[in-house]
Amino acid sequence: DTAVSQTPKYLVTQMGNDKSIKCEQNLGHDTMYWYKQDSKKFLKIMFSYNNKELIINETVPNRFSPKSPDKAHLNLHINSLELGDSAVYFCASSQGLFGSPYEQYFGPGTRLTVT
Amino acid sequence: GQNIDQPTEMTATEGAIVQINCTYQTSGFNGLFWYQQHAGEAPTFLSYNVLDGLEEKGRFSSFLSRSKGYSYLLLKELQMKDSASYLCAVRGRSNTGKLIFGQGTTLQVKP
To answer: Does the CB of B60 have a partner CB in chain A at under 8 Å?
Structure first.
């Protein structure tokens, strides 16, 4: 059983297009995250939802819009894609927030290539 | 500001011991995590430290000194499959659980 799943695994698209990445977790966690990992392997938080409420919204262009229809799902929609958006996007989930020792579980990643 | 430093690359020999250091400067502190990431795969959790001292888990141990803003991950009896990136991540004292990741240390284990 896959704990955190993402679709698609690979996404190749042209500049200016709009695309979505979907994430689902079956761990019963109440918090979900989106991370971006660039070519230098630097993993950076973009968004986080706790019980469907947005709690982290880093300095990310407003072309990126997360949506959490329920606690088990967190999707990422990207408008007007740019070359600089090319990266691997990871979804993650965890149980609890502040003070929680619980680790984050990561999905397999979505490799986005913008041409 | 918030900053986490790790060496970019390390090389070690199969069967040996390697120590990967991490220093951090963050706005408050509420735990430090180590993750392992094989090429093309997702990060997976290795260890968690919130109090000073050593946490041991099989071949892997992690140490924390909060006063020095310092942690290390110790890998013993290295195996070829330990070749991967090791990411240090710190959770600051906020109510969001946000993790700040270092850029990772790529470890190559040679025969």
So the answer is: no
Provide CB contacts within 8 A for B24, sequence distance 6+: B2, B3, B4, B5, B32, B69, B70, B71, B88, B90, B100, B102
Question: Bridge partners of B72?
Answer: B21, B63
Question: How far is C-alpha A54 from the geometric centre of its chain's CA atoms?
Answer: 13
Supply the pLDDT for residue A45.
92
Reported residue count of chain B is 111
DSSP state of A72: T
Neighbours of A112 (CB within 10 A): 21
| Residue B92 near chain A (CB below 8 Å) | no
Amino acid at A105: Y
Cβ A99–B99 below 8 Å, yes or no? no
Tokens of B39: 């090429």
pLDDT 10s digit of each residue in chain A, 115 long?
679 999 999 999 999 999 999 999 999 998 999 999 998 888 999 999 988 889 888 878 999 999 999 999 999 999 999 999 999 999 999 987 654 667 889 999 999 999 9
The residues in A 4-33 lying below 8 A from B, measured between CB atoms, are 4, 31
Under 8 Å between Cβ of A70 and A56: no
CB contact under 8 A, B30 and A101: no
